[in-house]
Write a structure and sequence with these properties.
alpha+beta, four-stranded antiparallel sheet, 34% helix, binds iron/sulfur cluster
Amino acid sequence: MHRIETISREIRTNGFRCRQCGACCQGEEKTSRVIVSPPEIDRIIEATGLEKSEIVLPYPEFIESDEGGWFTFEWCLKNEDGKCIFLAEDERCAIYSARPWICRTYPFALNGNTITISECPGIGEAITPEEADALAACLVKRQEAEEEEENAVEKIFSSHTVPEGRTVAFDSRGMWSIHG
Ligand code: SF4
């Protein structure tokens, strides 16, 4: 069976309908865990006219380098009072057409060929075959984009050192100094 068909079937078995409750767009942390890559940040910048620094913070888990610096990988959308900065007052996404992969495919994700499901009140609701197919195709595209990003980050990471006293974030486009 075609891969997308298999994934679509599993989505249909679980059932899903977005209730537009906004629950997946908010939490208690200062930064969300909506991880975004440079191409995703570009799309949001294009859609909003905002600067990168207004949209994202570095992923908030830093690792100490052998040389005594600190590093992390990628970026997360900013939160305000625990809500994604793009969550509008009506609980809708203000950047819907430019929203990141993780938002397009939530509550589903692929781990290799295994589908994982996060907590969501919309699970168990009926979904049409067409909607499930579209979601399955989106999950595969997300996985491809993530693999491409990971490979590029790996190359950048292996060709840089993080010097003592520096804090940086790595992404597919380079090593970025973090201030403050
Ligand atoms: S970008 Fe949109 S869908 Fe994603 S967390 Fe923010 S408000 Fe929610």
